[in-house]
Automatic annotation (TrEMBL):
Residues annotated as domain HNH nuclease: 45-101
Protein name as annotated: TIGR02646 family protein
MF terms (GO), sorted A to Z: endonuclease activity; nucleic acid binding; zinc ion binding
InterPro entries, A to Z: HNH, HNH78-like, HNH_nuc
Length: 235
């Protein structure tokens, strides 16, 4: 999970939200008709805006939601308990089905909304594993509730993705060591393009909108500092 900048919801949703809140104020026993809303074009527009905000990745597990699997609108504060917030854009996120099901209608104050708090202050990735920083309760609750370390498909995807980067990094380090041991600094010019390429790739894949970008960032951003130092030394 990582922090996102919230965009503006569709105008028609904002109107729907206002209309609903006015009715709810008059009669707090009313129930929001989400099913009916789901059939409207406004829902489609809302998903599109959320997709843009999250650049197609799930707000929680950071998997790219493929065009074959239908993305879901996640109510951070569940619509069953917080009826008033059912159509409030600030309460809506873009999520994969698995995360949406895992979170269900659970909510407490310690939970992390990616558009309000910075999840990286609470959760870090060591390898493919999501870890709560200093065992803080906000991170722990999100990791446990969303089953971030328990879903075998997600775990496999992460390992596969991470291992490509790890393999390339190890090869680079071996090549650098070999060059340095040969004490022939001209050899570094052969390795240099690979170092630059690796650095650029890590920077690119750590960006918002890339699958598992936080995992890549936490595992490799410090490593590219080492590679930058190597480049500076040989220049
Ligand atoms: Zn997800």
């Amino acid at each position: 999970m990582h922090k996102v900048q919230r965009n503006k919801g569709p105008l028609k949703l904002l109107e729907k939200d206002k209309e609903w809140k006015d009715s709810f104020k008059l009669n707090p026993n009313l129930k929001p008709n989400w099913e009916e809303f789901s059939k409207t074009v406004v829902k489609r527009e809302t998903i599109d805006m959320l997709e843009q905000m999250y650049k197609g990745c799930c707000c929680y597990c950071e998997s790219k939601i493929k065009s074959t699997s239908y993305p879901e609108i996640e109510h951070f504060k569940p619509k069953s308990k917080y009826k008033k917030l059912c159509f409030e854009y600030n309460n809506l996120h873009y999520s994969c089905k698995r995360c949406n099901i895992s979170k269900g209608s659970y909510y407490n104050e310690d939970m992390i909304s990616p558009s309000d708090k910075n999840p990286e202050d609470y959760i870090k990735y060591i390898g493919e594993v999501a870890v709560s920083r200093e065992n803080n309760k906000c991170g722990t609750i999100m990791i446990d509730l969303l089953k971030l370390n328990e879903r075998s498909d997600l775990k496999e995807e992460r390992i596969k993705y991470l291992s490509e980067f790890s393999k390339n990094y190890e090869l680079l380090i071996s090549a650098i060591e070999m060059v340095l041991n040969n004490k022939d600094s001209s050899d570094i010019n052969i390795v240099k393009p690979f170092i630059i390429n690796f650095i650029e790739n890590v920077k690119l894949k750590s960006k918002h909108g890339e699958s598992y970008c936080t995992m890549i960032k936490h595992n490799f951003l410090d490593k590219i500092d080492i590679l930058m130092e190597v480049l500076e030394e040989v220049e």
